[in-house]
Amino acid sequence: MTTAFSGTLPGLDLPAGRWHGPLWLTDEPLTEPGRFRDCIAAFERTGLWPVLVPHDERFAANGEDWVDDRGRLAPATHRIDAVDVAETLSRWWDPFCCAGGTGCLRPFGASFPGLARKSQLRVDPYAEAGNTGSILVRRGTYRLGLVAVERPADVPAALGWTGMIKSTDQVAAVSAVLRSWEDRFGATLVVLGFDELELAVAAPPRLQSPAVVVAAEHRAFSVRSFSGQPGNLREYAASLVHRRHWRFSWD
């Protein structure tokens, strides 16, 4: 389901914007939180998933914009289906980042523990994404982006996004992990920055035991995000119980 975008979504008024390759982006930051929610509500008929693109001082200081001034990989949506998510996260699992052994990986060790079980979905993922995105717009500075995809997880692969390039150049694998999290936790992409992703989570783990396995997945996906957290995986997992907003970075 992909649709060419002519400048106006049916039934919606959008701020001024333009195409930057496969990404349509508003020229100025979004000031009306409801517009993000409206774009999500229209997704099934437009095939355009909205993402919030945060203001990034690293580029603004030089008069640059990473959307235009940094390269992209080749689009890779056609490769997502072939990715084995469990094998990929196992391959990305790094047992050598802990100082003096594997203590930061407790209760696990040098081997990836496998995928967490699916959580029971109690909230509509798109409604959760709309609410989270609207809150973010009220609190921060974001432009509104639109990408033609079949599902939100495919945005990085569709754009050839390079935000994770310090860890991997397999953008199809990144989208495959996001698809898996969509399916198991109702985790939906809402923010796409130069080297960061944020997800709204409709079905987060409700207990510590499944949360610690989810924590292992997070660490494999973005070691840099985990490295910024205090304690070991068990302690990090405690912060994921009932948490409806996941953030990852590769800076």
Automatic annotation (TrEMBL):
InterPro entries: DUF4253 (IPR025349)
Domain DUF4253: 143-251
Pfam families attached to this UniProt entry: DUF4253 (PF14062)
Protein name: DUF4253 domain-containing protein
Species for this entry: Amycolatopsis dongchuanensis
